[in-house]
Amino acid sequence: MPPVRKPADKRQNRVTKDVTLIPVPTATAPPAPGGLLKVTRDKWEQFWRSDVSTLVTEADQVALERLFTMYDEWTRCIAAARKQGRLTEGGATGRAPVLNPLYAHALTLEAKITKLEAEFGLTPLARLKLGVQFGEAQRTLADLNADAEAVDDDPRTSLA
Question: SS3 for 5?
């Protein structure tokens, strides 16, 4: 007859952990980079009101400003491309219609924006990953001790 297994909650390395992002109070939003459109400045303010902004350090400020500058450039690029039309005269002879080069520039910006959005937790999956990472960092010594006591059912550890 095989041995009876321990209940799942008593097995080693089977501790389940609920990790949450703990918002830290922040100061007022820093001023938006200069020369941005109103819609981009509004997005800047909205970002600083979100919980994700609590993870931004002073060292991250340059990359964050770059992200919002790219948002602004993308908005301007798409608006200009729509105004000029999807197709423009191009090619070697200037007769054959080609896709407006502003759309190619917008796609380049989108690729860079997507990478920075992931780094700052501005997508659901990125927030999940950052939440786990930073949630673990926020655990207190008491939490760690409580976990250690919950798993400590090894008879070799008791000295009594």
Answer: coil
| 50 within domain boundaries | no
DSSP string, 110-129: HHHHHHHHHHTT-SHHHHHH
The position carrying tokens 């080609």 is 98
Structural domain boundaries enclosing 87:
59-123
pTM above 0.85, yes or no: no
- Neighbouring C-beta atoms of residue 44, cutoff 10 Å: 21
Cα 48 to Cα 6, 20, 91, 97, 146: the distances in Å are 48, 19, 45, 43, 34
Q: Please check whether residue 79 is in contact with residue 114, taking contact to mean a CB–CB distance below 8 angstroms.
A: no
Higher per-residue pLDDT: 137 or 35: 35
Burial 134-154 (b: 16+ CB within 10 A, else e): beeeeeeeeeeeeeeeeeeee
Nearest-angstrom CA–CA distance, 141 and 145: 6
- pLDDT tens for 66-103 read 999 999 999 999 999 999 998 888 766 767 888 899 99
Question: How many domains is the chain partitioned into structurally?
Answer: 1
In a domain, 34, yes or no: no
